[in-house]
Amino acid sequence: YDRLLRIRALRWEYGSVLPNTVQFHMSAEEVEWFNRYKKSLATYMKSVGGEEGLDLTQDIKPPKSLYIEVRCLRDYGEFEIDDGTTILLKKNSQHFLPRWKCEQLIRQGVLEHIL
Q: Ranges for the GINS subunit domain (predicted)?
């Protein structure tokens, strides 16, 4: 039971895609449970919050500012922000981006928040 609680917490920490290093330490049944949980959560989020749904995984902590400075930890490729601007996320590049667009990539280890 404790292990399932930890796996559920991984969905909130990393998003819908687990890093390979985490998946490596999970059994096939645990990966299957994670996938069912993330689908169930996605279905629920689509059912609330109007037409676009409500992403409960964003802004886990109340933001102090709408934009944050981030550093790219690995080559990621192109990343589009709200106004249609495309930014190339290359290793060690720094950017000033909307917080809500970065949170998922921070959890995945692509970006780090520069304080």
A: 3-48
